[in-house]
Design a protein that fits this description.
Chains A, B: Keywords: Electron transport, Endosome, Glycoprotein, Heme, Iron, Lysosome, Membrane, Metal-binding, Oxidoreductase, Translocase, Transmembrane, Transmembrane helix, Transport. Chains A, B: It catalyses: Fe(3+)(out) + L-ascorbate(in) = monodehydro-L-ascorbate radical(in) + Fe(2+)(out) + H(+). Chains A, B: Its cofactor is heme b. The structure is a homodimer. Chain A has about 250 residues and is mostly helical. Chain A has seven helices and no strands.
Chain lengths: ~250, ~250
């Protein structure tokens, strides 16, 4: 009982930090960076941080811990599998759209793509995420995948899921840091430089700290073995195609 | 047996990646950034990346996995505890010296301290590392700490150890990215800008990728339960002060 209360307190903290991340990244880009458009301007770029933080960190993190919610344990696993896969597909679509935003912006403004360390780590993270989703779909949702393959893939899937979140956070922090050095320069439109910590810098730095805090809470939930969904013992487990999956 | 072979292959990979990180960060700062000095110049700053990558990532990561080496399992734990604590103390001293390098450089050149997101995450990581070392020393090496306290502290110590490595990597990647944007500007001493990916950029980006790979291998070793040092069952465990610790 105490474990369940601790879980829900941690879960609420995760939801609160996630919502704060989305609010802060949107507020930063709307109020300080000029808002949003899809026209090749700076406003086009602004979709990049918003979609990456919302999709690849907040939505991804929440999707990763779906099975850890004790409320779902007594129930048929299939709807929660579909929710897990569905949320991650939405997260993947948002991430790819976020990548399109920065590539389009660069191409329109004749800026090279994929030169910074941020972009190298970020593109590897997105590629790993895509592979993870496809492998996860093939192994756990296609009805003809044998249970043996599912059991074999599962530990790697769980571990890689956590690692992709870590890499997303590495990408976000290096990206926010880079953006602030680009955007906050002395004598440009009367803005204070980054080194003088104007309000925008405090806001975006705080966003970075809260992204890290969100990631640590999700990793804490994932690593606590007491919070893992109890699975039937291996000999009780029967191969069930998608349509009849009652595990 | 197969597990032990897999461990040593992974361990060798970890050593190889760690050594590569130290070689690359030293080569970058020696050959491209002008080398080392302690005189307030750019050469003074160059100690910062070298000491942080060597101390807070490579030495730290290797110290974290000392207990995972099967060779040590049949032996008295105390020498390995002292090696773990000693390597981490050396890592902490190198990290603090690396921080002194950047603070001294900033102060000499009238540059503000602790304004970037990189510095916020980095200083929090160093503070957590210091707290972790002091708590670890108090809980596991002071002879008068009761076994009950050790058992209570251990899971948190192991988890926080992994998290500090993740935060160190976040700090390193954002720092290398930031340094390359500072250092590689068009028309400065004839250097190509970062966006043209001159050899220095490829070298330092590769360093970043290898730091991430090193971190993932260490996290893999830490997370594999088969590779954990077998501990005596709780009822066999006896309170032993430091000098007689045979556990």
């Amino acid at each position: 009982m105490r474990n369940i209360v601790t879980f829900y307190v941690t879960y609420l903290m995760c939801l609160f930090l996630g919502i704060t991340c989305v609010v802060l990244v949107s507020h930063w880009n709307y109020s300080y960076r000029g808002g949003f458009a899809w026209d090749g301007s700076n406003k086009h770029f602004n979709w990049h941080p918003v979609l990456m933080v919302t999709g690849m960190v907040v939505l991804y993190g929440n999707a990763a811990i779906v099975y850890r919610v004790p409320l779902t344990w007594g129930q048929n696993k299939l709807p929660w599998k579909l929710l897990h896969a569905g949320l991650l597909l939405l997260s993947l679509i948002m991430s790819v759209t976020g990548l399109c935003a920065v590539f389009d912006y660069h191409n329109t403004n004749h800026i090279n793509n994929l030169y910074s360390l941020h972009s190298w780590i970020g593109i590897c993270t997105a590629a790993l995420f895509t592979a993870q989703w496809v492998i996860g779909f093939t192994a756990f949702l296609l009805p003809w995948t044998p249970m043996g393959v599912r059991s074999l893939v599962k530990p790697g899937h769980v571990w890689m899921g956590a690692i992709i979140l870590v890499l997303s956070i590495v990408s976000c922090i290096s990206g926010i840091n880079e953006k602030l050095f680009f955007a906050l320069k002395a004598n440009t439109n009367g803005t204070l430089p980054y080194s003088m910590l104007p309000p925008e810098a405090v806001l975006a730095n705080s966003l970075g700290v809260i992204i890290v805090a969100f990631g640590l809470v999700v990793l804490k939930i994932l690593s606590n073995q007491v919070w893992q969904r109890p699975e039937p013992a291996e000999d009780e487990e029967v191969y069930r195609p998608l349509a009849y999956d009652g595990s």
